[in-house]
Amino acid sequence: MCRQDPHAHLSAEEQIAAEESLSIYCKPVELYNILQRRAVRNPSFLQRCLRYKIQAKHKKRIEMKISLPSTVNDETRIQSLFPLCILLARPVYSPAVVEDSAVYRYSRECILMKCTGDDRMNQDQANFILPEINKLSAEVKSGSLSILFVSCAELFKEHVGGSLFPANVGGHCFLGKIPMELLHLSWEKSLNLSSGERAEMLSTVDLHSCFLKTSCFGEDKCFSFHSPHAGSTAMSQQLQVRIAAEEIGARERSPYDSFAYSDIPSSTLPQIIRLRTGNVVFNYKYYNNKLQRTEVTEDFACPFCLVKCASFKGLRYHLPSSHDLFNFEFWVTEEFQAVNVSVKTDTWRSEIVAAGIDPKQQTFFFCSKATRRRKLKSLVQSSKHVHPLILDSELPGSVNELREKTDVGVAESGDRDASSPRVSSATAHSYADPECVQSLPASNLTPPALLQFAKTRKLSVERSDPRNRALLQKRQFFHSHRAQPMAMEQVLSDRDSEDEVDDDVADLEDRRMLDDFVDVTKDEKQLMHLWNSFVRKQRVLADGHIPWACEAFSKLHGQDLVRTPALHWCWRLFMIKLWNHGLLDARTMNNCNIILEQFQGQDADP
Fold first, then answer.
1. What percent of the chain has pLDDT over 70?
2. Which of 88, 191, 380, 414 sits most deeply, having the most CB atoms within 10 A of its CB?
3. Full-prediction pTM beyond 0.70?
4. How many CB atoms lie within 10 A of CB 70?
5. How far apart are alpha carbons 93 and 222 in whole angstroms?
6. Where is the composition biased (Basic and acidic residues) (predicted)?
């Protein structure tokens, strides 16, 4: 919703000037729209990891307290029910469950040893933390949440000093239940809970006798209850229970929460309060702050990138950090949560241009280096000006045979004998100057290949000279990478394997270097070695290769990573470090985790 101020008090010229002043918002908004579209595929950070969002989510959780008030309960009658165990449990649906029995799964239990007095001092009560009201409604609709009241005094007497409920034990007990659906309906209609206050209610719980047996279901503990047989006598008890609910963040109230809803009917008041909580008014100032346009967003949403910030405090963090081209002024009253917005005009001025100087009249400096001419291209171009080389059709096309023919041609040209049956005098002269070679008919060699061959041939001729060979034998040559001495055959050989890497030797040297580290764990060294070997073999050179490399690494070593949890955590921490340095995006990290989860699923399947 957007509203603009009337221009009744402005003249026609002032209205035109005001519209031009408003257009200063166009460039920043256009820039943030581009960034928003880019962040859809490549977000700079995960929204759910922001601290203010996590805090706002935790403050909306509901704290539920259950107690037994002594004013409405006869302590002498219910004394035999203590200790009373209160659980927040979910039913387990399985074909193995018998018809007259029920199985519930729970993670934590609370024990009440007595009733609560009126003074509310030293209260004996059970505390539970529930999700926010919207998330709780989804669980309640499925009927998968209930509050259980279990009285098993006999079981506690047999296991004094041990755990509350040991596994695989059983005994007679009393069982009562309150479905969470009833509480949820009451809390949705409660004005106190909607306005951030404490909501209390009294409920009657019927306890029936049954047989209890404890067991385990994975990491969670389970209760199985069996109804008594038809011939046995069934006993029952009644309890009056006080249930209080309050939002965890209700104590931190702002003036906006103390608004008086006097004209709104009570039936729709809770819904209106929840809708009004996230409304924020944005006032866009323009024309020297004389005019403004107003926009209202819901759910504490940012008007520029539409990100939901979960609270007004979240907007205070998000707007200055993500949209620093604007000035923001935050203020809260009983009626509004508002933000005044204005454009930072000084940021549009160039930092290089001094104040009061026209950029068009400022001196512009440009420096360029002279381009170097490539030698290979000049050789190919100069070869156009020489006479073509003519060979007869009987010349073989392979490089080795061509090299043998070349040696023969060079020897004959040195003796001034041009009577070769296959090579003409022009051919011999051409091989004496290898840089004049242009093309060879009936051959599969291209001009660059021939030039490379000519250079190799020239080096071979120089090395084969007896005087040069004697000079080479007097000196000792070493490999530049390995610093190992070279044999004379390697020095005179045309083959150069200096840049070739032996993967086994490289892995051995990498492991030896990693073993020198003292403050690194064994699993971290293993991950370093796997990553170094992968990067070396796959030639991961640029920053843009990292996203592909992480996904390929997860596919290649995924089986080893999921089988070793410590190695798996090292890989996750390594991806987080890449993400911190801006080398890895969140989407690629998520894809890597999905790949590893698929490997875990394959291991779990029989």
1. 68
2. 88
3. no
4. 15
5. 12
6. 408-419
